[in-house]
Design a protein that fits this description.
about 130 residues; mainly alpha; globular
Length: about 130
């Protein structure tokens, strides 16, 4: 597994950042801007770059990426998600405001874990119930 793949999971692609910036300039909501990152994540899973344990987690990876890229998407309210998820979202939001270089070993571990997960979570069949919620 090369360096390019690790970077791919950690950093959003340029065209995704560009589309999210355009959505922000057009005055669209932060959730719409974050949708670009979720879309990118689904593409990566479909291409086989990595997997995800379930559809919700695949979406969460995209939202996390959006927050780290600077999209002002608030963390979920208490009760809407687990305490762990909410803390992670708050941390991502803070890291998006002032970014520091990620730990290489930690990134590699996360990448390897995602590589072992399945790829059917990005299918239209599994995304449909999430879209309806």
């Amino acid at each position: 597994m090369g360096r390019a793949l690790r970077k791919e999971i950690a950093m959003p692609e340029k065209h995704t950042l560009k589309r999210a910036r355009r959505a922000k300039q057009e005055g669209k909501s932060p959730s719409t801007q974050a949708g670009e990152f979720v879309r990118e994540e689904m593409e990566h899973i479909r291409e086989g770059k990595h997997g995800a344990r379930n559809t919700k987690r695949a979406i969460a990876i995209g939202l996390s990426k959006a927050r780290r890229a600077g999209v002002k998407l608030p963390a979920p309210k208490a009760g809407a998600a687990s305490e762990k998820t909410r803390k992670k979202a708050e941390r991502d939001l803070k890291n998006g405001a002032s970014h520091r270089k990620p730990n290489r070993n930690r990134s590699r571990g996360a990448t390897r874990a995602l590589k072992r997960e399945g790829h059917s979570e990005a299918s239209s069949r599994s995304l449909s119930p999430q879209a309806q919620r």
